[in-house]
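Example 320.
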Amino acid sequence: MSHKIGILTSGGDAPGMNAAIRAVTRSALKRGMEVYGIIDGYKGLVEGKIIPLERGSVSDIMVRGGTILGSARLPEFKLEAVRQKAVEQLRSYGIDSLVVIGGDGSYRGALELTHMGINCIGIPGTIDNDIVGTDYTIGFDTALNTIVQAIDKLRDTSSSHHRCSVVEVMGNHCGDLALYSAISCGAEVVITPEMGYDEEEVLERLRYLEQIKKKRHSIVILAEKITDADMLAKKITSATGFSGRATVLGHIQRGGSPTPQDRVLATKMGDKAVELIDNGEGGKCVGIINNEIVGVDIEQALTSPKKSRKQLYEMFERLV
Ligand code: ADP
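Predicted structure in complex with adenosine-5'-diphosphate:
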């Protein structure tokens, strides 16, 4: 079955999205499909910003962070009338299938479009690792590497000055970036939405480490949107023997050249997305589960419970 397929990136960008765009484009061309890139996500789709992609259009993009197609947010895409415009744009090009690279908001849009007759396949592209239908999302490993490099540098200067570094990392209500970086860096405290936050407990642990264990420095990893990093650092200064310093890593976590692991993951997922489309499937998203690339119903991915990290938290606590 020959197809014309579209591809877009949506929501927050993530390193590795370009590798996925390359894989989708080349895999689809190899299968005899025509490929169209949609600029600026659902917004560009509604506005008809659609360009043909050839093999050479995706040359040399693998190493680049961000997304060559651009991304945007369009809250109005929740309205059926707005989505209808998107469907009309796609139909005018003869495009009947769409690969959507993004997070769970983007998946919701993809599911709605599938209900309206456009077969959509989602690919999880977000540094936050907050999508349920996959063990890992594209961009998570790169962001984790960025965080770990930054914390390693902070550790050097912290230990010289008897400091406690409070490092705020991204995650958007998911503590994976915080937990994995805490494990990777041997942090003293990790604060995540999953485990909740008790300020007095944090201060007590730091006092113990400083006074009883005679630690010269310590690191607290704080997931975003829980408490103010600066305020916590000031409390640490006043309530423990450490001098607290806050570092909010911010958007540098979203940038940079993707790690080989993210490139490989993105490539496998892009190739799988095209295979699903070739099989006439829609309303699915690609995931990696127990190291196997699979297609999962978007509906199921959006409604399943979050992955449990209980064992990882217990291990972290054992090793502090
Ligand atoms: P992410 O995909 O990274 O989770 P957002 O939540 O911002 O990012 O979603 C990206 C875009 O997906 C939104 O700007 C909107 O266009 C579309 N979207 C989000 N939620 C829905 C929904 N319930 N129905 C249709 N489209 C949606």
